[in-house]
Task: inverse folding
């Protein structure tokens, strides 16, 4: 089939437009990552949502927009973004883990477990999934199950701060305060450890009546 001059012009215009959209989307994603790393979550959220305007079916952009919203304590929007990411890509492990945690905080552990189960079929040893399931077990009153998942998550990913914080909370709750303190202290030696993890350690020191260390 031969294309006439007009058809060729239209095709070329479409290719340029598509290419331009791809470049703009990549720029939005890059800036979003920069803002996320700098903890400027509002700007990160806007950049990822700009990327979604160009490509609504980008699961990673939805996930990252959800993470930014989560840091801004906008859990409703975060949940919507995570749900969208899963709809676009049911294998998106991060979105399943984060959405499950929101369900737990919302008092719906059964819904959290339902969200997590397909993820374990894909990645049974994923630390984020294990941490989310451990949190779910804890909400359901299954302390042994919570401890097993949290310990496995920390063994797999010793620098996963959510896993460390969960396991420390579990240890502290059964009187193993020093073990909890040691766990978090070791994690804090990792370059780039967050302020939130340091606050967890402060709470552990206070709970163990070690006030000078807390200060």
Result:
């Amino acid at each position: 089939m031969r294309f006439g001059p007009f058809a060729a012009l239209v095709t070329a215009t479409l290719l340029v437009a598509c290419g331009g959209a791809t470049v703009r989307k990549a720029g939005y994603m890059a800036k979003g990552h920069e803002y996320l790393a700098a903890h400027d979550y509002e700007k990160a959220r806007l950049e990822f949502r700009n990327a979604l305007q160009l490509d609504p079916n980008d699961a990673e952009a939805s996930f990252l927009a959800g993470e930014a919203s989560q840091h801004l304590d906008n859990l409703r929007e975060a949940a919507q973004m995570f749900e969208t990411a899963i709809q676009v890509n049911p294998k998106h492990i991060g979105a399943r883990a984060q959405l499950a945690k929101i369900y737990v905080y919302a008092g719906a552990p059964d819904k959290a477990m339902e969200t997590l189960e397909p993820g374990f079929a894909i990645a049974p040893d994923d630390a984020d999934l294990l941490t989310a399931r451990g949190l779910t077990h804890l909400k359901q009153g299954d302390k042994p199950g919570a401890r097993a998942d949290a310990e496995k998550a920390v063994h797999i990913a010793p620098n996963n701060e959510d896993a460390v914080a969960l396991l420390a909370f579990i240890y502290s709750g059964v009187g193993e305060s020093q073990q909890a303190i040691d766990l978090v202290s070791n994690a804090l030696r990792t370059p780039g450890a967050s302020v939130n993890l340091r606050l967890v350690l402060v709470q552990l020191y206070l709970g163990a009546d070690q006030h000078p260390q807390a200060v």
About this structure: The chain has a mean pLDDT of 92. The chain has twelve helices and no strands. The CA atoms of residues 134 and 156 lie 14 Å apart. The two ends are 78 Å apart (CA to CA).
